[in-house]
Structure formats: structure tokens, C-alpha cells
Specification:
Radius of gyration: 18 Å
Number of strands: 10
Strand order of the largest sheet: 6-7-8-3-9-10
Oligomer: single chain
Helix content: 40-55%
CATH class of the largest domain: Alpha Beta
Strand content: 15-25%
CATH superfamily of the largest domain: P-loop containing nucleotide triphosphate hydrolases
Bound molecules: adenosine-5'-diphosphate, magnesium ion
CATH topology of the largest domain: Rossmann fold
Largest sheet: 6 strands, mixed
Order of helices and strands: EEEHEEHEHHHEHEHEEHH
Shape: globular
Number of helices: 9
Distance between the termini: 42 Å
Length: 245
């Protein structure tokens, strides 16, 4: 469903991503991990068609994202790190905003879709609240609803649980898996939260200094001999220990 081939990107001659190739199958959840500033968001923006890479190609559902950008973007929903909600619109209007732009359905069918989507993400009854009245977790849910309402084949998540407390993180992790199970969407998420990634991802890719140095499941990740991965795994095990004792 997502195919990234030999993708490299430089910002002002500074290499940020080097020769990245990744495939994500239909209905799969792939997590891309790596240190902060390591190029994760840049990779996501290249896949979303928001940024043209210096070289390489990206295909989504068989469409070249940088040549058939409009068509490809209709197949993707993006959940930004900051929920990026419109402060002056309520929850329902925030979700409807994108639907209204793309959908050919009648207004009442559109509203119906928005309400069903809000129910799916657990925001039933919150339709008329304004962004300022929402908790961090609720804002994330609106962001997910906004992507999901466009009925995409692929959802890209940028750090979906960063800044959330452990309990809210857990509920958002569940929601991401539920959305995949219910709608069969393919998901690519970037994150530096190891415990969250272990709960959600079918497969993990790890970026180090702009190169893809690991690809595999969580078992292989845990036993990887790569230093930066070992460091992350040990840190997360220490945190789990403190939470459970
Ligand atoms: N628009 C931009 N112009 C110049 N440099 C950028 C731009 N966006 C990101 N960078 C740089 O590229 C590197 C990777 O950033 P980013 O992809 O945001 O990393 P991550 O999401 O892994 O934290 C950083 O050093 C960042 O400063
Ligand atoms: Mg980032």
C-alpha cells in the first residue's frame, strides 16, 4: 500500500534522509522510530506529498505521490503532532471542514458521516465543544476523526502519543489499532515512545542519522544489537519497572 524507494532528502545541502526504502502492506501498522531530529517528520511529509524529496519515489496505492499528488493525497489522512485544530470551530465543524471540501455527498449525509466518525473515536456528545475545552487526548481524537472521515486507505500519524499521560497514551494506542481493525486502513506512524510502539505496531523501522538501520517485529527489535536501539529498549524497560512497582 505504501512503497518508498531510495528516498533521500537534503535541507540546504544537509542530508536528513539517506536512501530510505520501506514497504507497508495493506492493513499493516508500521512504526518508524528514531531519535529526535532524526528525520521522522520529514519522511512522513515526503510520503504525504507535502514535501518533494531530493531523490527517490513514493507510491501509495499504486499512485506516484509526487506525480499524481492530488489523487494520491485523496487516499491518505494525516494526523499531525500538534492536533492543528481550528480554534474557532467546534469539534464537529473541525471534522466536517475536510469532508465538505472533498465529498460529493449531500450535506445531511456529510453530517451523518461526521457524527458516525466522532462516535468511532469516542467523542460522541462532544460535537459542540470548542478546542479550548478539550483535553490533550480529546484533541488527538478529533485529529484522528478528521483524518478518518475522509475515508482514506492510509493514515499517517506523527507522534500520536507525545505529550500524553500514560493512561491517555494507552487509550490512543487502542484507538489506532481499533481503527485499523474496523476499517482495514494501513497506518504508518512515527514515534519515539517504545512502549506505545510495542503495543501498536506490527513492524518497526528504525532511523539512525537519516539511514534505515533496522526493520523487523518487536521481538527482533528487543534483541537487536544496534546500540541506539538497545539504549531505547533498556530505558523503556526501566520505565515499565517503575510504573508496575
Ligand atoms: N523545513 C526545514 N528546513 C530546514 N531544515 C529542516 C526543515 N524541517 C526539518 N529540518 C531539519 O531536519 C532534521 C530532521 O527534522 P525532523 O524530520 O523534524 O525530525 P524528527 O521528526 O525525527 O524529530 C532536523 O535537523 C531539522 O532541524
Ligand atoms: Mg518530528
Amino acid at each position: 500500500m505504501i512503497s518508498v524507494q531510495n528516498l533521500s532528502h537534503r535541507f540546504d545541502e544537509r542530508p536528513v534522509l539517506t536512501d530510505i526504502s520501506i514497504e507497508v502492506g495493506e492493513g499493516e501498522i508500521l512504526a518508524v522510530m528514531g531519535s529526535s531530529g532524526g528525520g521522522k517528520t520529514t519522511l512522513l511529509r515526503c510520503i504525504a506529498g507535502l514535501l518533494v524529496p531530493t531523490s527517490g519515489t513514493v507510491e501509495v496505492d499504486g499512485l506516484n505521490v509526487h506525480r499524481q499528488t492530488e489523487e494520491a493525497r485523496h487516499r491518505m489522512g494525516m494526523v499531525f503532532q500538534s492536533a492543528a485544530l481550528f480554534d474557532y470551530m467546534n469539534v464537529e465543524e473541525n471534522v466536517w471542514f475536510g469532508v465538505r471540501r472533498w465529498s460529493k455527498a449531500s450535506r445531511s449525509d456529510q453530517i451523518d458521516l461526521v457524527q458516525r466518525t466522532l462516535k468511532t473515536v469516542g467523542l460522541e456528545g462532544a460535537e459542540k465543544l470548542m478546542p479550548a475545552e478539550l483535553s490533550g487526548g480529546m484533541k488527538k481524537r478529533v485529529g484522528i476523526a478528521r483524518a478518518l472521515a475522509l475515508q482514506p486507505k492510509v493514515i499517517l500519524f506523527d507522534e500520536p502519543t507525545t505529550g500524553l499521560d500514560p493512561v491517555t497514551t494507552y487509550t490512543i494506542d487502542r484507538l489506532i489499532v481499533d481503527v485499523r481493525d474496523q476499517f482495514g486502513v494501513t497506518a504508518l506512524l512515527v514515534s519515539h515512545d517504545v512502549s506505545s510502539v510495542f503495543r501498536v505496531a506490527d513492524r518497526i523501522a528504525f532511523l539512525d542519522k537519516g539511514s534505515l538501520v533496522f526493520e523487523g517485529d518487536s521481538g527482533a527489535f528487543k534483541t537487536s544489537r544496534i546500540d541506539s536501539i538497545q539504549e531505547l529498549v533498556q530505558k523503556s524497560q526501566a520505565t515499565e519497572f517503575f510504573i508496575s512497582h
